[in-house]
Design a protein that fits this description.
Distance between the termini: 34 Å
Number of helices: 7
CATH class of the largest domain: Alpha Beta
Helix content: 10-25%
Oligomer: single chain
Strand order of the largest sheet: 7-4-6-5-9-8
CATH architecture of the largest domain: 3-Layer(aba) Sandwich
Mean pLDDT: 95
Largest sheet: 6 strands, mixed
Number of strands: 28
Low-confidence stretches: none
């Protein structure tokens, strides 16, 4: 039996980011860039108006107010998408829309709210003065042509997608999502839409794992259930090289029909098979044909906790992520908690922030590893270390936030 830290070190040390692929700009959301993105133009490409109003010379509106307005001759109307043809001279103005290029000679734009018009728009009545450059967005004030706007290793967010569009990057290069094979094991399993007969249960773990894979950014592939024979389990697990990662659930303990570990030793290489933790001490890890393999326990909560601690970081690292862990922070226990001393506990809990900024955590319900309801209610895993057996109410502990992504506060 090895420690959680040792297991994570072994799991992650050989994982590298997958090869890159080009995807559409929108499809890159949440992905990790594999190459820099460089702008092919200035942004903005020209001086343009930040407001609907009138482009003017500063000297012509000096001292203008509601009591002493200035009247200027309108020489042109310029809409967004058009280009001005008439320069502004002394005593003149151009009617201009937001985003339209600023005409030659203009030094500021007066918001339409501070203006009126006369003579069917032939004369602009200006009721405020202006500073040089007021309400004008200058050429290249955001991005210069040839500038690197996004760098390899960045996670693409909504603003980054907009930047791609602005600088002409239709298909960024991003690290590929891992294809994750999911294998549930056991003669007792029936399909989600099948009513379970005597001694049977529905295969919920495959769906839980698929959801966790998607949440981590991977692509899940639910394979056929591996029945409790070496022959059938070997046939299913032998498909591992067709994927970037394989995760099984069940069949890794010491029962008469738990054959996953035996098959892994036969067709692959086993690294470890037991971790000093609860729930889910039987955590099997190795490779099959070079593909990383995880054999998680069959109890639903053990499966989910094992995925969170060991598989999720692998799925993230394969995509080029460097922040691999959920956010964590200290909590105050809301009640007494007892445990055995021999291993680290990861208990399903609910933590709430108090007015003074501290977090108080309480168990989310019964902690049986066969029960999903407490996992559903939980927003964190309460982490209680080895070597201690009693944690009184008011004592401090650590928690891993299940409701927050990597890098969030």
């Amino acid at each position: 039996m090895i420690s959680v830290e040792e297991a994570r070190r072994r799991v992650l040390e050989r994982i590298v980011a997958l090869d890159a692929e080009r995807v559409g700009a929108i499809d890159s959301l949440g992905r990790v860039l594999a190459a820099d993105i460089v702008s092919d133009i200035d942004v903005a490409p020209f001086d343009n108006s930040a407001m609907d109003g009138y482009a003017v010379r500063v000297a012509d509106v000096a001292g203008a107010s509601e009591d002493t307005p200035v009247r200027l001759r309108v020489v042109e109307h310029v809409a967004a998408g058009a280009f001005p043809e008439v320069p502004i001279g002394a005593g003149e103005a151009t009617r201009i829309m937001t985003g339209a290029p600023v005409p030659e000679g203009a030094e500021a734009v007066i918001m339409v709210e501070h203006t009126a018009e006369e003579g069917d728009g032939a004369v602009a009545v200006i009721m405020t003065s202006a500073r040089d450059g007021e309400n004008i967005r200058r050429k290249a004030e955001d991005v210069r042509s040839g500038e690197t706007v996004l760098t390899a290793g960045e996670i693409v967010g909504s603003a980054a997608v907009g930047l791609m569009a602005a600088v002409g990057c239709a298909e960024p290069l991003v690290h590929r999502r891992p294809r994750v094979a999911i294998v549930a094991t056991g003669d007792e399993l029936v399909a989600i839409d099948e009513y379970p007969g005597p001694g049977k249960i529905r295969n919920s773990n495959s769906y839980t794992l698929a959801a966790q894979v998607i949440d981590a950014g991977g692509e899940p592939f639910i394979l056929e259930v591996a029945r409790d024979t070496v022959v059938h389990t070997r046939a299913i697990l032998s498909q591992a090289p067709d994927y970037d990662l394989m995760v099984s659930t069940g069949g890794v303990s010491m029962g008469d029909y738990d054959v996953v570990r035996d098959v892994l030793e036969e067709i692959g290489d086993m690294d470890f098979w037991k971790v000093a933790m609860r729930p889910g001490a039987p955590q099997t890890h190795g490779t099959i044909g070079g593909t990383p393999f995880f054999g998680l326990p069959g109890n639903p909560t053990s499966t989910m906790v094992g995925f969170e601690l060991f598989v999720r970081p692998v799925v993230l690292k394969m995509q080029g992520h460097t922040a691999l862990d959920r956010p964590h922070h200290p909590v105050v226990l809301g009640h007494d908690v007892k445990k055995k001393a021999d291993r680290r506990y990861f208990l399903r809990a609910v933590t709430e922030r108090m007015p003074d900024g501290t977090y108080v955590a309480s168990l989310a319900g019964a902690q049986s590893s066969a029960m999903l309801t407490s996992m559903h209610r939980a927003n964190c895993l309460l982490v209680l270390p080895e070597g201690e057996t009693f944690f009184p109410a008011g004592s401090m502990a650590a928690c891993i936030r299940l409701d927050r992504k990597e890098g969030s506060e």
